[in-house]
Amino acid sequence: MASSAPTATVEEQGGGVVRIAMPFAGFDAGLNVHLVRGDGPLTLVDAAAALPGVSRMLSGALATLGLTYADIEQVVLTHHHLDHIGLTGEVVAAGGARVVANAAVAEVLADPPAHFHGELEWGIAQGRRHGGPDAMMDGARTALPYTTAIPAVLVDHVVDEGDRFAAGDLTLTTVLRPGHSPSDTLFVDQDAGLSFVGDHLWDGSPVTPVLGSMSGPRPAAEYVAGLARTRELTDHRLLAGHGATVDDVAGLHDERLAGLETRIDRARTALTDEPTSTWELGSGIWRPSSSGYRGPARLSALLAALELLAARGQAVEEHDGELVRWRRGG
Fold first, then answer.
1. C-alpha distances in angstroms, 232 versus 202, 238, 251, 261?
2. Where are the domains of the chain?
3. What global pTM score does this model have?
4. Cα–Cα distance measured from residue 246 to residue 296, given in angstroms and rounded to the nearest whole number
C-alpha cells in the first residue's frame, strides 16, 4: 500500500501569526513558513523551497485556512538561502504580492541560478583551499539544478537597518544580523514580543556560517556578536525557519554557544605544532569521516572554531601556496 504524501502542520502562534511547518529532507526540524494575518497586508514570512512536493504542501496548508497564493499580499524574506526564497516567484505570479527583503537578498533574486552557481564554485574553491576532497560538494552539485526553478523576482521594498513596515496586525522593524549567511535579517515587533529570525537562531542551529555563503574574513565572530544582541530579546518569542517557536531565547542562546565552545575545545585539542590542513585536522575529529552531505557543514563548523581560536591567539593560520594549514598558537 502506497504511503500518503507528506503534509504541513498549521499552528497558531498568537498575534495573528500561523506557523506552517513542513517536512524537509535532511532536516529533522523541518521547514517553516509563517503567515501573518490582520488589518495590514496578508503576509508570508519566507517562501520555502522550490523542491518537489513543497508547493503542494504549502498551498494545501493555506487551503485549510481558506486561502490561496493569490490572496497573499506580501512576501517577507529573512535571508537568501534556497529553502527560504524558493516559491517567491510562484506566489508573486499568482496574485502580485509585493516582496520585502534587504539588498543582499534582492541581489540574489535578480538572478538566482547565476548566484547559486557562483556560491557553488566559491564553495568548491574554498573546500580545495582547506584540503577537502572534490566529492565534498557533491550534495551542493545535486541541488544546483533546482535553482533553475527559482525565477528572477523584483524586490519591491528593499529594507535596511531600522526600516519599519506593516504585516497583518504587526509592525515589523528590520534588524540586520549577518552570520548564518551574510543576508540574515530579523523582523521584530517589540510591542507584540514576536521576532521572525529565519535561520539565525533555532533549536538545533549550529552557530556556523554556511560554507557557500560566508562573507568577510571573520564571519563566525560576527555571528557570535549578533547572537549576543539577540539574546537580549528575553521577552520575545522567536519564530524560526526550522523547528518549534523559541520561548526561552536566553536559554537557547546559551545552549547553542555551549555547543560552539565544545567544538572549539575539540579543535584546540587537535592542533599541534605541525601545520595541518583544515580537512586533515577535521578528519582526526570527525567520526565517521566526512564527505558528501555532511562534509561542507562539518568543514564550516571547524572553520568557525578555528577562526575564533585564532582570534584568541590559540591557533595560527598559515598558507602553503593555496592550501591553508593550522598549527597551535601561543
1. 15, 12, 11, 20
2. 9-271
3. 0.95
4. 27
